[in-house]
Amino acid sequence: MAIARIGKGIRVAPRDALVADSTNPEVRGAAYGLRQSLDTIGAFLGPLAAFAVMAASENNFRLIFWLALIPGFFAVALLTVGVREPTISQTQESRSNPLQWQTLRSLGQGYWVLVAVALLFNLGNSSNAFLLLRAEQTGISASLIPLTLMVMNIAYSFSAYPIGILSDRVGKFGLLVGGFFLYALVYLGFAFVQTPWQIWGLFTLYGLYLGMSKGLLLALVANSIPANLRGTAFGFLNLAVGLALLPASLLAGGLWQTLGAEATFIAGSLFAIASVLLLIAQKNKY
């Protein structure tokens, strides 16, 4: 699992930079939305396929892992054959050390505000395990709990690309603010939810929040930084998000144990509202 996480850390920033390099600014919302949609479709079709193979093979785990290698090899082959990194003129600026203070300053204040917003927001964005625990508390049976994540991913996959297209027409900033605000409302909903049908609705809205925020944040970052520093910029963004996830879950767990589940979700909602206010305060930079 640790190796898998390291692999994700290595590939995410270069992938996002390649998407930015391969698209025009006027269609980047659609590009990142499509990437998020396809990624999420794979995220719920993969487990369904694994479940079917497990049932047909009488729980042959080795077969599952061998079969999982096949799409991985196809992905590497497609990347090798079908993707070409755009040629960038080898100026002194592009060859400079990206960790130098002057280079980091050239990323611009707008970019660092987005990093700060992402860090602040994710301090309240705890593990999805807390959502599943809340679903169980509300009365959803253990056998149905995995389906809540499927509902969330379906809503995510079907919303990310259309919202990306819409953002290219009406602007990304307002939709991103709306996505963060929707998250705040959804977490308030989880704090006070009473019945199972409300849980299903909240997971659907949570998927919509993902569709309204993940790709749009990446598109805003791509449009606010120099082309030669995109890899560095996405790397720092993912570093900020990664640093926030552990304390976010520790905070959520501590609040759950001491004050109850309601406190966990109210705190997450407050962090989201604070992120919205910070983003709105810096609106003129976008």
Report on this structure.
The radius of gyration is 20 Å and the shape is globular. It has one domain: Growth Hormone, Chain: A, CATH 1.20.1250. By secondary structure, the chain is mainly alpha-helical. The protein has helices at 2-21, 28-56, 61-82, 92-95, 101-105, 109-122, 129-138, 145-170, 172-192, 196-223, 230-259, 261-281. It is built from twelve helices and no strands. Helix 6 packs antiparallel against helix 12.
Q: Regarding CATH, which class?
A: Mainly Alpha
- Assign the CATH topology: Growth Hormone, Chain: A
Question: Which strand-content bin applies to the residues?
Answer: under 5%
Mean pLDDT: 87
Main sheet makeup: none
- What general form does the structure show? globular
Q: Distance N terminus to C terminus? A: 38 Å
Number of helices: 12
| Global Rg | 20 Å
Pick out the low-confidence regions: 90-94
CATH superfamily: MFS general substrate transporter like domains
Annotation, overall tally of beta strands = 0
Domains, number: 1
Share of residues in helices:
over 70%
* Structural class by SSE content: mainly alpha
CATH architecture classification: Up-down Bundle
